[in-house]
Fold these 4 entries.
Entry 1:
Amino acid sequence: MLNMERKTFCMTLCIVLFFTNCVSGNYPKAQNVSWLSINFKTLLMWDPKPFNYSYTVEYSVVGQIREWNQQCIRTMETECDLSNVLTDLKATYSADVFSEPLHRVNSDLTEFPHTSSEGFTPYQDTLIGRPEFKIEVSKDKRKITLYVEDPPIALFNEQNKLKTMRDVFADELQYKVTFGKATSTGKKTKMSASSEIELDRRDIDPGVSYCFNVQAYIPSRSTDKQLGELSQTQCSPGANKSFFEEFGIGVIAGFLLLVITIIVVAIVVTVVCCQRTRKANTSGKEGVPLRSV
């Protein structure tokens, strides 16, 4: 009798374990859980796309109580926008992606499979997008000024207006300018703590066209995250060049030599043709007999 009870218990246990495994198998764990953040627009992303199950995201400051994001409960998406809930930009966050039944579908599981993210600190880890800037050249062509627009971010201030990188990083925000003559491959760099960047005769030659790229620079970050995305290239207008500056002495000398050569060849050909014509005329006259008197 005791052996029969043991066999029954073992069979029941095996059935329960088998059933549990089958249910768990219907909810595969999320893979490749990672953060994607640009200008504090922060998404948690993962794979694969679900078919008969859903995902729920929980997040928290590391070591604190986890919370749900209301937009990412039993979702069929593979990303969750956490921009508005990661309010402490200098805190380190972690998140879990749970694989759960579809909405209004019950399950006997008491704990669902989940995958944890790596830690994420918005202040240190968000990528800084490319800045926009304008170029102004002084009337005397001796100074070029770049007016950089601090990139807007996906956060709002008390007036419900978008904040900028300057609002967040303050004096830590600098700009790295890479520039060179439009007609040269050589490059120079200049760092500026201001969004208004002046280049004078110590940096540029008056009246010459220069091309510029600008990117944000945060020196307090780790080396691989200090620089933001490179801006699009913009070039300043150059001064109106004289004929000799535009084409260069070598090109002009070569052109003059070609013209002189063509003239000399034309003269030689003309002379030769004239001589042949004269000889032909002379030979014709000698072959005609004299008239009798």
Entry 2:
Amino acid sequence: MGARGSPSRRRQAGRRLRYLPTGSFPFLLLLLLLCIQLGGGQKKKENLLAEKVEQLMEWSSRRSIFRMNGDKFRKFIKAPPRNYSMIVMFTALQPQRQCSVCRQANEEYQILANSWRYSSAFCNKLFFSMVDYDEGTDVFQQLNMNSAPTFMHFPPKGRPKRADTFDLQRIGFAAEQLAKWIADRTDVHIRVFRPPNYSGTIALALLVSLVGGLLYLRRNNLEFIYNKTGWAMVSLCIVFAMTSGQMWNHIRGPPYAHKNPHNGQVSYIHGSSQAQFVAESHIILVLNAAITMGMVLLNEAATSKGDVGKRRIICLVGLGLVVFFFSFLLSIFRSKYHGYPYSFLIK
């Protein structure tokens, strides 16, 4: 008893206890609980992310583009965690919306999504979805979006930047252009596979058959082949089609026209020199044809040997066509190339 309670033993025990600060045990306990909580939170995030990716992969197995309402948009696109990129098409496909551009853009978007879904590089890093105005009005309001169609990229981390909105008005909505934009934003390269389209082959076969049948029926009189006027008309049609921008339309796939969602006004002429509408190319084709017709009439009036009064009328008509429609063409040029100083009759 004396040895156990001796002063030397008590002094040694006191020195050992002084090595531990006062209140250290509650602090260690709190630190341990915090680590457990953080570990549990991290595990919960990983489980939530795995569930989201699993759900998206399940939807992708059934269709390449899945539709989203407001709740799904906030859960799978806006809310973290997220380690995948999401391409969203905001559109208005209901018949009462009368958005023909939306239907055309949707066809190209479907081709792009199918190309990704059935490619060998398909993975869970990129998904395609769609928000229709009538199914997700709250999403349009949340994003302050007042036009359709619109393509946006939502990155795995952070908010979309300006470049994450596809410049449809300038580039068009062809699947190839969308694929290039996605490659710039996500480093995911998609090779676009278009379904076989035999309409061009069938049309060419019908044309060849028609020409061949006509030549066979007229086999005893083929002088029309040497008709200069006929060949000139065919050449002019090709020239009008090429100079009006039909090839640009075929490559870029622009909309036919643009309808302002605020006032409903339809624009047939694009305001930029870097783009055009399909309707605009048709207008330019008609203007070029009218100017050419005027020049033909002027030539006819100068070279023919008919009645002088008739030739004078033909000359005036031809001159009127050239002057009026060239002025119209020049005014369109001024509206697209801002700052162009020259005009003629029409401003």
Entry 3:
Amino acid sequence: MSTSEVSGKPDYSPVSWREYFDQMEDVNVGPADSRDVFRIYKAGSDGPLLVLLHGGGHSALSWAVFTTAIASRVNCRVLAMDLRGHGGTLVRQSDDFSTQTMSSDVANVIRSCYGETPPPLILIGHGVGGAIAVHTASNMLLPTTVGLVAIDVVEGSAMEALHIIQNFLKGRPKSFKSMDHAIEWSVKSGQIRNLESARVSMVGQIKRCEVEEADTVEQATPVTDVVVERNEEFYDQSYVNDKENAASESVYKWRIDLSKSEKYWDGWFRGTSNLFLACNLPKLLLLSGINRLDRDLTIGQMQGKFMMQVLPPCGHAVQEDRPDKVAEAVAAFLLRHKFSEARRETRSSNSFTR
């Protein structure tokens, strides 16, 4: 427990991915002269491979706390990847967010890591990542896929919500003066309702930039062509506010401008409910609220075509807000279909708290 937690004040300082994953890798995909590089995080050494795909604007680090929770319950391996344009991934066409391109990315990364015969895979996706998981599975891009888990991705409610996404993006801060401030904002605004998760995952959402003009941090927001990224994993939390030292100031900005992906939003979700239902795999749908269910999924659920669980009240960042509850549901799914075995130490008890 940190000093600030002892004093009763929340600790908003960032936490390393190393607390949750075993390793981080940059995976090269494509021809040698024009390779795309995808950032991945791994954990575990045996059991089925859970391929974790994050939501729009997030990164693989949004699965950090969930990874610890699921690994304590069942034997499994985890591979969480930063999608193109997100996190630490660097691709040539970073603005191509089509479902075809993004699902191909997933298949290419897995093949690069495991060859043509990967271990049994369970595709698990949240939001946009859930739609990508559905497209990857329905197009049979990874033949060893044995299960599919979609988290808070429902075509009907997603299509209805598209018009408010731009308003949300316009309403959030354009920059932060420190990583701590970004973490504090994410929790207090309700974007991430779990402080532990926010402390590790916000590092994947924003990056430190150097302001090279004589501008204050507050004025730095509209400056786009004079900002360069620093690649430190951890950032010096102090910065200078004096105008005379303005050249050395830093500001933290979003790694991806989600508003530029708007032309793909419709394609991400349209038709996903029927694609999900048509996938001839064991399936699990996790929702943050029953009101998210659309007509096709309601009928499919009544026909027993997939497992479904509505989680306790939480926001859209389901696996971050309630990582233990999501891990419990995924573990039950894996055990029911005999994809994995329960960890010995948890067979007698299902209660796990980090």
Entry 4:
Amino acid sequence: MWLYLAALVGLYYLLRWYRERQVVSDLRDKYVFITGCDSGFGNLLARQLDLRGLRVLAACLTEKGAEQLRDQTSDRLETVILDVTKTESISAATEWVKERVGDRGLWGLVNNAGIFHPLCCTEWLKIETYVDVLKVNLIGLMEVTLSMLPLVRKAQGRIVNVSSILGRVAFFGGVYCSSKYGVEAFSDVLRRELQHFRVKISIVEPGYFRTGMTDLLWSLGRIKEAWEEVPSHIKEAYGQKFFDAHHNGVKQGLLRCSTNLNLVTDCMEHALISVHPRTRYSAGWDSQFFFIPLSYLPTSLADYILTRSWPKPAQAV
């Protein structure tokens, strides 16, 4: 009985492996637009796809980032300045893309641009921080997608939305998690609505990786800034001892972040070039073997596993 079951599971994965190895044709004629290419995943993906021969349209927030990327890539890659929080910037970028892709349409849209807030308790953050994160990570992603969608539909292409494992298991970074849960929901609805247009939607859920958003000194500095600006009654509720323990816990977590960004960009590339892309990609060992299994546990058990080592606030009851 168990032997037959093992054989069936093995056959399933063999067939999936075979299907996923099939690559779409004429890659050199396909255009891919990527947001957030100044650094991190977006920058690496732009260089990776350029080497693959695709026509990369890379959106950067700064001219400095765009210039550095152009210096590292072929003449096929083109850059444009884009601020995903501004409608006029998105409209201008869409027209720029339309001029380049022409009647072929846009094969791939990769919504990668994102920001992180200070890695601290939800109560320590100002509402302005909540708004800023949602504007970039969720509203900006939605607006870019809706603006580019006619071009993607024309090419019967792909949309790749970068979420996070924190879009599946939320246990710190309240507004960041909220934005990524929104990305998951938006992507699920879009995938179901666009299936008859032969547009495929994939979600990439990275675990913990070392990028500009998780830079150690920058992240720890922002935690201290947030704590210093917290109202006195909140400081009293948590206490300095709690902050010190939290600060050290974040530091240890950041030191364990993976430096192999290719684990993420390889998922993005597969979603763009495979004949049969996956609906979801869990990128990173922590994502695949800890957080995804954790997401299927009873909530009370998951809560215990995630919070058992957390420090207690000064006024805890």
